[in-house]
Design a protein that fits this description.
This protein has 215 residues and is an alpha/beta fold. The chain has two domains: 128 residues, Rossmann fold (3-Layer(aba) Sandwich), CATH 3.40.50; 70 residues, Winged helix-like DNA-binding domain superfamily/Winged helix DNA-binding domain (Arc Repressor Mutant, subunit A), CATH 1.10.10.10. The chain has eleven helices and five strands; from the N terminus they run βαβαβαβαβααααααα. A five-stranded parallel sheet has the order 2-1-3-4-5, with helices on both faces. The chain is globular and about 50 Å long.
Length: 215
């Protein structure tokens, strides 16, 4: 069993690795700290049996990484592991393709329960979510999620860099390609998202953003 942990906080990655090993000592665990590293691992290595994914990652915006990775690798189950404990965030994560949701405050036993349930094909949610009403945003975001799913992995990377405010020249440098290639990607992104310019593209994906958790 191969489990991939994706989180940009080294201390929490270490804690999560220990929790997984405690519950599943036979598992092989690997780790990455960004969306770029995640895609590199998925595109060049063997597919993991399960991905534990944080929502706040370098190279992503809100639910965008979950939506896109789920579409590109539909056979890999994903459990979101996040500091957010709001019911609406949990419901929206499931609506966007997660098979489970583990709050970072959850005890180690819950982590084991969630992983085992998801590997058996079930959806695992925190016990205290049962009586919360559904969040209407989960349904309203479906159209946007479908558009993001239509992007290629490289187009998704470019879109996230556009959202960060990088210019075409800067994106080309970061991705080691020509500026003309980036312009072609941006044109394709605008067409797939149904927008006319960079500002509209950023506003469009804004629907998938999440407020930072308050500690």
């Amino acid at each position: 069993m191969n489990i991939l942990i994706v989180d940009d906080h080294p201390l929490f990655r270490h804690a999560l690795i220990q929790a997984v090993r405690y519950n599943l000592p036979q598992a092989s665990i690997s780790e990455t700290a960004s969306v770029a590293e995640l895609y590199q691992r998925l595109e060049t290595g063997a597919e993991p049996d399960l991905v534990l994914l944080d929502l706040h990652l370098p190279g992503a915006s809100g639910f965008s990484a979950l939506v896109h990775v789920r579409s590109q690798f539909p056979t890999i189950p994903i459990i979101v592991v996040s500091a957010h404990e709001e019911a609406n965030i949990i419901q929206r994560s499931i609506a966007h393709g997660a098979m489970g949701y583990i709050p970072k405050s959850a005890p180690p036993a819950n982590i084991g329960e969630a992983i085992k349930a998801v590997l058996e094909g079930d959806i695992w949610l925190p016990p205290n979510l049962a009586h919360h009403p559904n969040d209407p945003r989960a349904a309203s975001e479906t159209e946007l999620a479908d558009k993001i799913q239509s992007l290629t992995p490289q187009q998704f990377r470019v879109l996230m860099m556009v959202a960060e405010g990088l210019l075409n020249k800067q994106i080309a440098y970061e991705l080691d390609v020509s500026e003309a290639t980036i312009k072609a990607h941006v044109t394709a992104i605008f067409r797939k998202l149904g927008v006319q310019n960079r500002t509209q593209a950023v506003l469009a994906i804004g629907a998938l953003t999440i407020e930072e958790p308050k500690f």
